[in-house]
Amino acid sequence: MIRRNAIRVLLVIFCLSVAEAQFSTKLDAETIAAFDQYVNSVEHGLARPTFRVDGSSEARRQVLKGQVAIQSLLGTRGKSIPGGLLHDWVGTVFIPNRTPSEVIEQLRDYEHHSSLFPEVVRGRILSANGNNLKVYLRIRKKNVLTVNLNTEYDVQLKQMGEDRMLWSHSTKVTEIDNADGPNERELPLGQDHGFLWRINAYWLARAVDGGSLVECRSVSLSRDVPFGLGTIIRPFIKDLPRQSLDTLLTALKQKLSKS
User: Residue 223 is part of a domain; what is its CATH number?
Assistant: First the structure.
């Protein structure tokens, strides 16, 4: 197994070195417009918050027993749009003995996300205005490849009745070359390898059965899988959105269960 993984890594390095021109890509206005259109339809549907695991489903019963439920709304391979690939995943978890307000406040503690979420290297709040925040996060994503990104978000706290919601819209995602090295630099915005161009998160927390039912819907945009590099790129682009959401919800539950 170790030898197989070593060969796979060497194959990645070789292919990246000989296919850099094909591997690099550019985010086009047409791709951004298609993503924004999809996001508008998502947010229209979220105007009246409901959970994907309904009150009588087996999935809900399993979540209340401690499992994390993850599902894709666009299929596990995502949805192709001009110049890119849409990903839309929903994850649900039950956190006992915690109120929705406690859950959301933990999520809003961005300056300590690096000690909570494995993908977050560091974070800070850039500005705050009531329920609105501007946030910076350095994130590191791994799945065969390792990619470091500087990201910024507009974050809005919402309330509908007893429900608490937190909507996070990415406003900047830039790939980092030679991260944390002496020659670290940001690649030009939208002119990189296209691993992640946009990512929005829509959180919903509701009090149920002595705790909080928590849902996160993650809508993201990446490049599509380039011809000839599917073996290398597919796990990162198509498998990582699910993996990241599962890791995020599991870490949140573990943190709040211990506190």
Answer: 3.30.530.20
